[in-house]
Amino acid sequence: MVVPSLKLQDLIEEIRGARTQAQEREVIQKECAHIRASFRDGDPMLRHRQLAKLLYVHMLGYPAHFGQMECLKLIASSRFTDKRVGYLGAMLLLDERHDAHLLITNSIKNDLSQGIQPVQGLALCTLSTMGSAEMCRDLATEVEKLLLQPSPYVRKKAILTAVHMIRKVPELSNVFLPPCAKLLHERHHGILLGTITLITELCERSPEALRHFRKVVPQLAQILRTLVTTGCSTEHSISGVSDPFLQVQILRLLRILGRNHEESSETMNDLLAQTNTDTSRNAGNAVLFETVLTIMDIRSAAGLRVLAVNILGRFLHNSDRNIRYVALTSLLRLVQSDHSAVQRHRPTVVECLQETDASLSRRALELSLALVNGSNVRAMMQELQAFLESCPPDLRADCASGILLAAERFAPTKRWHIDTILHVLTTAGTHVRDDAVANLTRLIGGAQELHAYSVRRLYNALAEDISQQPLVQVAAWCIGEYGDLLLQGNFEEIEPLQVEEEEVLALLEKVLQSHMSLPATRGYALTALMKLSTRLRGDNNRIRQVVSIYGSCLDVELQQRAVEYDTLFRKYDHMRAAILEKMPLVEQGDPQVDEEVQESKAAAQLSEAAPAPTESQASQLLDLLDLLDGASGNAQHPPLLDPSPGGALVHLLDLPCAPPPPAPIPDLKVFEREGVQLNLSFIRPSENPALLLIIVTATNSSESDVTHFICQAAVPKSLQLQLQAPSGNTVPARGGLPITQLFRILNPNKAPLRLKLRLTYNHFGQSVQEIFEVNNLPVESWQ
Amino acid sequence: MQFDDDEKQKLIEEVHAVVTVRDAKHTNFVEFRNFKIIYRRYAGLYFCICVDVNDNNLAYLEAIHNFVLNEYFHNVCELDLVFNFYKVYTVVDEMFLAGEIRETSQTKVLKQLLMLQSLE
């Protein structure tokens, strides 16, 4: 029983009439069964209809591979309708991974050589869509023959098929290179277009082809000129521009030919300058854009490049979003090489930041960041910061890091820099890079005159919002370091705000307890609290309480810190002040790390007299404080009031603890007895005006050695004294190696310095003890 | 580039997802895998072309428009495209070949198509 098969239209209607997926599947399955049956033994005349139905079904996504052999049969048939559907099926169903495709090679060959033009066209089409490498090799000669046929219809297709063949089998370039020159002389636009594409493909693949075709640059220029000047054929013009596609292709080829080649570039120069295309329609803009791209890529004259940038600038004002996008992308490429030209369009670029389309605003952001330089940095930063507040979250990280980088490179003043970073941290704190915190602390530490200002602003920012972790970390560090400045309350540029000690402590506690704080932030806050215990004048009960609470915290690191700080309060209270002093200036990079390592090693070598727990705790503290500040140099040494002999300690004192001061204070001789002399030399390091270093030198010019030399000192209560271990306690006779010892005196209130010394030693077999106050201390040592 | 049947389906779905969420405030260019998609919307239909990253966006935008304005489709609507899909393929083959623009003149294309039709 032969069921009359559905016509294609009917099938489509039926499928579209199905209301559910299941129904549709049913219809299709039924029809596929029919199709299969008819392929096997149905009427050959109706075969094309079956295949057409199958192709429709395939387009919907259903499997149709059983139709592949049918394609072959249809292609081999002599009727045009059959061939047409067959070739279409071949293009849709066959590809080079199935071996079946090779079977159509023969059919294609026949059709190419003997078929009528439309058939040839079909064959070429199929070849260029799914032709595999083997097929291309086999059929290359046929296609070449067709290149030179009189009929333009076939030639056009043949040329583009040649392009495809070259892509698949690059060796075929040799075959297709010679005809190109002849083809260029054609007038027919379609042929020209194809030829230019072919030449482009050839040149991209092989350098010899490139050299070969450089000769045709003048010819190409001529073609372009004719296109532009004569108002030629209307059939190729689109909205008033004559054949924009051909123009674009020629320009592209010129770009490839002119790249890195002076001579060709020169011939093109004046051609490219004639940009008289109408910019009100997209077609004109397309040509203009291609011109700009070409100018950018070849070795063009400087004036031409400026012209290109101006064109792009004009594009930026265009209301069409596409054109602005294209302009921004190209400007980004140009900004490295023609920076000043692009700068002129900076205001427009900044306006584009406000676009709603994310890709546009991202490009505008990149371009704006690239345009920041020393002179416009303030204005640009304002714009960028305004943008940061309103931009979508995925752009925030880029914007924040861009702003910080630009600020680092171009900051006009330190204060402005600090302000900028502060602003970024408050608006987009969670998106900044990790090293922003370290950078900021280093920056603030270095800007001594701005300590009070920074700490005040950070305190205000922190009081408002404790959720942004980097901000909290920096603020906690600053408050810890410069808490005393915060409480002074008399910085003239911001409104004087009286901050109470209790408020500061409460704020830090809040940070500690907040669940938004990361463990690292808590560490910062805890250490800040400890530092405040020396800076603030009130009693430390509150701090001690907090510290002891955290001694049982679950976080191991916090717990360790808390326990150590607690011990510091209980057992080593006298050392607390010295340990928690202000940090010296941090160097950029790590030149101090080696010194520190030696110092801490030396400190660890300190021997018997010192109780063991002190030094392990002290070196742990050193590690702790190192951890806290990254590569900072914290040149605190655990003070030892019992000096111990240690030859290894000599190099401790060789290392400078602080850079030499600008104006040296004269040395002072304070003691002399029987050839034993004691000299004091004073150093006031410049970055820490409250600090005074005294180096005590004991020399012996007598005939007998001085042994068991011990020097102790006392200062008034308002000053803090720290004695470091002496270099030894023996001064050999007759000018032997002197003993040196370093005193560190902290004098933040600039109280008058008074020093009382106690010496004990053995000399000439007798033990000597001397106690005296040093008079005539130079005024510069404490003012 | 060769794709399996199911890969083809997936591709179609991906492109659809990317293009349909964009409204008039966006540009007509989207980045897709390591190519660009240039699309244009005509009422309910999206015409998309996938090109290399360094091709001229604006020119291909024109090409889409050129394609659509073809007079072979007299007042074409979506249903016409569905019922005559093989004819659409023919038009595509006339204007684009091997991944490049082939013929840009509307009159010429029209002439070819009419001739082909007469052979049926």
TrEMBL record, chain A:
Recite the UniProt keywords alphabetically.
Cytoplasmic vesicle, Golgi apparatus, Membrane, Protein transport, Transport
Give TM regions: none
Top-level taxon in the UniProt lineage: Eukaryota
Instruction: Report one GO cellular component.
Output: AP-1 adaptor complex
Under the heading Gene3D superfamilies, the entry gives: 2.60.40.1230, Leucine-rich Repeat Variant
- Family statement drawn from the similarity comment of this UniProt entry: Belongs to the adaptor complexes large subunit family.
- Protein's UniProt name: AP-1 complex subunit gamma
Q: Which organism is it from?
A: Saimiri boliviensis boliviensis
What is the taxonomic lineage of the source species? Eukaryota, Metazoa, Chordata, Craniata, Vertebrata
UniProtKB/TrEMBL annotation, chain B:
InterPro entries under this entry? Answer: AP_complex_ssu, AP_mu_sigma_su, Clathrin_sm-chain_CS, Longin-like_dom_sf
- How does the record classify its membrane topology? Peripheral membrane protein
Arranged from A to Z, the UniProt key words for this protein are: Cell membrane, Coated pit, Endocytosis, Membrane, Protein transport, Transport
Annotated membrane-spanning segments are none
- Where is the AP complex mu/sigma subunit domain positioned along the sequence? 2-119
Q: Which PROSITE patterns match?
A: CLAT_ADAPTOR_S
- Describe, as the record does, how this protein assembles with itself and its partners: Adaptor protein complex 2 (AP-2) is a heterotetramer composed of two large adaptins (alpha-type subunit AP2A1 or AP2A2 and beta-type subunit AP2B1), a medium adaptin (mu-type subunit AP2M1) and a small adaptin (sigma-type subunit AP2S1). Interacts with CCDC32; the interaction is direct and mediates association of CCDC32 with adaptor protein complex 2 (AP-2).
Q: Which family does it belong to?
A: Belongs to the adaptor complexes small subunit family.
Q: What is this protein called?
A: AP complex subunit sigma
